[in-house]
Amino acid sequence: MAEANTWGTLIHPDEALLVLGSLHAFPQDRRLERSRVRPVQIIMDGEVHHASCFDSWGEWGVISMAPHPQASGVLYLATETELFKVDLVHQHVVDLRIPDLRDLHELTMAEDTLWLANTGLDQIVAFDIARDHVTERVNLSAYGSSPKISSYLAEGEDDQRQLAGDVKEEAERFHCNQVFEGFDGDRYVLVHYALGNSQLIRRAARRLMGRHGNGGVVNLSTSEATHLGLKGPHTLRKVRGDYWVCDSGRSRVSVYGPDWTPRGTISSRGWVRGAATSESLGLFYVGVSQFRRRYLALNPKVPQTPNMVQAISIETGEILGELTLSGVERVTNVYVIPRGTAAAMLDLHPDVAVSREAS
């Protein structure tokens, strides 16, 4: 297995690896002071580089990223409650000031719409990047064993904020953490509880996590839930015609065909979350975090490992390298980005002005 000083061969010369991280969400799990968190780190030339401009972003750190589909050098970065538009060329940052964001997870770009997984409200939010405006919010709730999908347009959003709060308190049953387009063209969400989860069970799960294991996907087009038996899943990626999903609680990557038929698993270490592919090298990169105390009940026999990134062969599933990370309590996401974008993120001035716009 490759040592840290040979990671130069595990990243293509034209690419870099962007690694995002943060504190744990729950204070009882934390060991690191916020001032020591390094939320944005970039791996290239076999070394880990620290993008200091982002050190103070978020109460926890930085959670996810999506590049603008047309504007080179423009990125969207999310903390747990905020969405920022970052213009690397002009060294300009805009806080888009979207209301009612709680525990954001994945960002997904689909043409001119940026979908936010608003996990804390069991909701997904559609943001129009051309108009810098929220256009839709989609709530997940459960009735019996079937998901219910309810959507409302952003016009009149002020009148709907109480509804969003009600959903948080009474119907948060899925823990949706990623929106994605399936191979069939339908839109899906990746969820911890594919068949719903009652308020009582959810509270117990926060202590014992004993009910994890019915994670899967919900088709937003048909309201059909597909139970995949995943434990606390995160980060689904399309890889050469298959779905690769971080089965976080089982310390592995689970692979499914386009019809959700199981293809196999790849064993990893720790809590796997955040992943990206390099087609040029045939590699799948995955973030690995040390299991927090609350989640040890999910996998009590797993050996404690440091926070790291692994490079895995897409062809064979073999782990080719591991690179230990510092300055984070958990890895929240991993991306392959152009080398020029990486250099611009490192050059972004720590005192860059942040302007504010209401969405």
List keywords for this structure.
single chain; 359 residues; mainly beta; 5-stranded mixed beta sheet; 5-stranded antiparallel beta sheet; 3 helices; globular
Describe the protein:
The protein has 359 residues and is mainly beta. The chain is built from 3 helices and 26 strands. The strands form 6 sheets. A 5-stranded mixed beta sheet has the order 4-5-6-7-26, with no helix packed on it. Strand 15 (215-219) and strand 16 form a beta hairpin. The longest helix is centred in the middle third of the chain and has 14 residues, at 157-170. It is globular, with a radius of gyration of 19 Å.
Note the main sheet. Answer: 5 strands, mixed
Shape: globular
Helix content: under 10%
Class based on secondary structure composition and strand pairing: mainly beta
Rg over CA atoms, rounded to whole Å, is 19 Å
Counting DSSP H or I runs of 4 or more residues, the number of helices is: 3
Number of extended strands:
26
Order of helices and strands: EEEEEEEEEEEEHEEHEEEEEEEEEEEHE
Give a short overview.
This protein has three helices and 26 strands. By secondary structure, the protein is mainly β.
